[in-house]
Known about the structure:
Layout: E1 7-11, H1 16-27, E2 31-36, H2 39-49, E3 52-55, H3 61-69, E4 77-80, H4 96-121, E5 129-133, E6 164-169
Parallel strand pairs: 1-2, 1-4, 2-3, 4-5, 5-6
Helix pairs in contact: 1-2, 3-4
Amino acid sequence: MISVQRxxxxxxxxSGIGAETARQLAHQGCKVYVGARRLERLQALAxxxxxxxxxxxxxxxxxxxxxxxxxxxxxDILVNNAGGALGLExxxxxxxxxxxxxxxxxxxxxxxxxxxxxxxxxxxxSGVGHLVNIGSIAAHETYAGGGxxxxxxxxxxxxxxxxxxxxxWASPSALPK
Length: 177
């Protein structure tokens, strides 16, 4: 029986959870495509894991399109990790531009990537594509100075139609083997 190498995509992979997730996926035998704005960090990671580093800004639709155009036709796993929190001011002092940047990255960026890769996830080698969204504890708990964190009420785990599975919020150890 011929084994097909699974293809994984990790956004926000230039450091932290994204970089470690990419390492774990590579360790599990996936060909990993890593994306983030900081290409120099991505290149070092890609060399380490024998993956592919591609520039990606999830807040820019054109950047997402260019990123996706460089991927294989079939993708088994998408890990939406890009995002972050800005500002530690109380909500009354929060800069609206911080809210906008967080919304563009944490919500719209996730949506852009999911939409762009959905057709490729449907072509997954296993017949089932996996969509994993990494979220911060800030989405579940308040913290001092966390007035700018946005958690839409509808951002929870749910099953997607057809051959694509939404794994909801997950840690790298929860990724499919």
